[in-house]
Automatic annotation (TrEMBL):
Source taxon at top rank: Bacteria
Originating organism: Oceanobacillus profundus
Protein name: Large ribosomal subunit protein bL33
NCBIfam families: PRK00504.1, PRK00595.1, rpmG_bact
Similarity remark: Belongs to the bacterial ribosomal protein bL33 family.
GO MF: structural constituent of ribosome
GO BP of this protein: translation
SUPFAM superfamilies the UniProt entry points to: Zn-binding ribosomal proteins (SSF57829)
A matching Pfam family: Ribosomal_L33
Length: 49
């Protein structure tokens, strides 16, 4: 079963991206390096609640 999640920048905490995650296979929080338009650089984005 997939749940919709939101990714937030670790530096400025702006919520830039949303995606789906398969809960049955991924128990930990998702962490991805993506471009943050607020910071103007590639930063770590973490899954939020």
């Amino acid at each position: 079963m997939s749940n919709k999640i939101t990714l937030a920048c670790a530096i400025c905490s702006s919520r830039n991206y949303s995606t789906n995650k398969n809960v049955s296979t991924k128990a930990t929080r998702l962490e991805v390096r993506k471009y943050c338009k607020t910071c103007g650089q590639h930063t770590l984005h973490r899954e939020t609640k």
